[in-house]
Automatic annotation (TrEMBL):
Keywords, in A-Z order: Carbohydrate metabolism, Lyase
Highest taxon in the source lineage: Bacteria
Self-association state and partner proteins as the record states: Homotrimer.
Organism: Ruegeria sediminis
Entry's family note: Belongs to the KHG/KDPG aldolase family.
Keyword Lyase (UniProt): yes
This protein's name: 2-dehydro-3-deoxy-6-phosphogalactonate aldolase
Pfam families: Aldolase
Pathway: Carbohydrate acid metabolism
Length: 201
């Protein structure tokens, strides 16, 4: 079962990337992003892809430029996540054959992202919009559009987000903080997956 949870490994190092990814995959989370403001992120992506590329969707977060998109592709990443709606980055991502999840917070940004070719939307910062805000935006979005709630989504409110129309979540600090070992991540991931399975079914 592939759960619609993206693990955000901000601050992970290349040496820790593979054991952390292994812990996540074993727990049932097979979508992983390394934000580009992490130490040597392309090396971390490349190492994870080399080891787990066939069984996990691995890519980058905090992707802000078209040059960064190309470097993600060169590292073997298949997922590009951004905090903003940048049509040039979205177009470059699709031209490279990668999956595009740009950040959007307003209906204008959501539709601009979709018009540029985005595969789905990262509702960010989710805590500013909240489930009520997403519910209002969902009324006008095409029903097939995938929306990930990122920022403010946690096991405590998964049910509220799903009820409002979220399709999944991006989870950062609740899963991984710089310096965490694989056992710590595995424990957190197990709790998150159990709650997700209970809510989503």
């Amino acid at each position: 079962m592939s759960r619609n949870i993206v693990a955000i490994l901000r601050g992970v190092t290349p040496d820790d990337a593979v054991p952390i990814a292994d812990a996540l995959i074993q727990a049932g989370i097979d979508k992983i992003e390394v934000p580009l403001n992490s130490p040597d992120p392309y090396a971390s992506i490349a190492r994870m892809v080399e080891t787990f590329g066939a069984e996990a969707l691995i890519g980058a977060g905090t992707v802000l430029t078209t040059d960064e998109v190309l470097r993600v592709a060169d590292a073997g990443g298949r997922l590009v996540v951004s905090p903003d709606t940048n049509p040039a980055v979205i177009a470059s991502t699709k031209e490279a054959g990668l999956i595009s999840y740009p950040g959007a917070m307003t209906p204008t940004e959501c539709f601009a992202a979709l018009a540029a070719g985005a595969d789905g939307l990262k509702l960010f910062p989710g805590n500013l919009v909240g489930p009520d805000g997403l519910k209002a935006i969902r009324v006008v979005l095409p029903p097939e559009v995938q929306v990930l709630a990122v920022g403010g989504a946690s096991p405590e409110n998964f049910a509220d987000w799903i009820a409002a129309g979220a399709n999944g979540f991006g989870i950062g600090g609740a899963l991984y903080r710089p310096g965490d070992d694989a056992a710590t991540v595995a424990s957190r991931a197990g709790l998150i997956v159990a709650t997700y399975d209970e809510v989503v079914g």
